[in-house]
Amino acid sequence: MSIYARYAPLYDASGQVRFALLSHAYLRELLVRHPASGRRALDLACGTGTLALLLADEGWSVTGLDSSAAMLAQAEAKAAGGPASAHVSFVLGDMRQVAGVVPEASFDLATCTYDSLNYMLNAADLAACFVAAAHALAPSGLYVADMNTRHFLEFDWGDCAVREQDGYVQIERSQFDPVEGTNSMRLTGFVGDDATGYERFDELHVERAYPPELVDALLEQAGLRVEAHYDSFTFSAPGPHTQRIFWVARKGV
Predict the structure, then answer these.
(1) Nearest to 174 by CA among 194, 152, 199, 195
(2) Within this chain, do residues 179 and 246 fall inside the same structural domain, yes or no?
(3) Who is most buried in 19, 117, 159, 183, counting CB within 10 A?
(4) Do 196 and 79 fall into the same domain?
């Protein structure tokens, strides 16, 4: 079973929606420092669509793209009948190759948040994501993306976590590979109740960290000029113990 196939309906309620809310608040501040020239946004790896819908609520014309049909189903259900529905659409696609899925040079802002780029397990795939974003952005369009650092994956992720709520229990077990620079997280979920029993599902999530210097170089090679990188949800420079870095880059004119 692919990741998110069973987890998608549980994703927001398990607490993951919080990151999208934080990203939206941070993005509003970031855009003051790094303005976008228009109001057309592409949310790459949009998941259940929370960030896309929040942007649409603010008057952006938004396209959300994700490779998981199950996650997009959640996004479309959230958008249906809501006030933002006229300003947002969701498409199934791979963020490494968006040509033919979204129109070229048609977005003033492209976002890619919540570890999504860490799922790229080799530099070629990461580079392809940046080339695809540049393809979608209009001249002077802004690209905002975050990535977990190696320090976080190695020292701060934690080996085991348990989340419990009515009708759902989630267990996360993680292991860092120092050679590959990857953290493999085995997610086991139990859906149900004590009266009728529980259904179990398992997913494997693998993330890789990259040196910031390599990320900078790959962005520049894709035609995205790096304007800044920030320690997670701040406007401070990243340090040796930074857990997450936000990159801000702009497509050339």
Answers:
(1) 152
(2) no
(3) 117
(4) no
Contact predicate 165/192, CB 8 Å: no
Helix and strand counts by DSSP (H, E) for the chain: 7, 11
Q: Residue 217: which domain range?
A: 8-149+210-251
Site of tokens 């529980």: 198
Residue 3 lies in a domain: no
- Chain-centroid distance of CA 223 in Å reads 21
Q: What is the CA radius of gyration of the chain?
A: 18
Could you report the per-residue pLDDT of 109-154, keeping only the tens digit for each? 999 999 999 999 999 999 999 999 999 999 999 999 999 999 999 9
Taking the whole predicted model, whether its pTM rises above 0.90 is answered as: yes
> For residue 53, is it within any domain?
yes
DSSP percent split of the chain into helix, strand, coil, nearest 5: 35, 35, 30
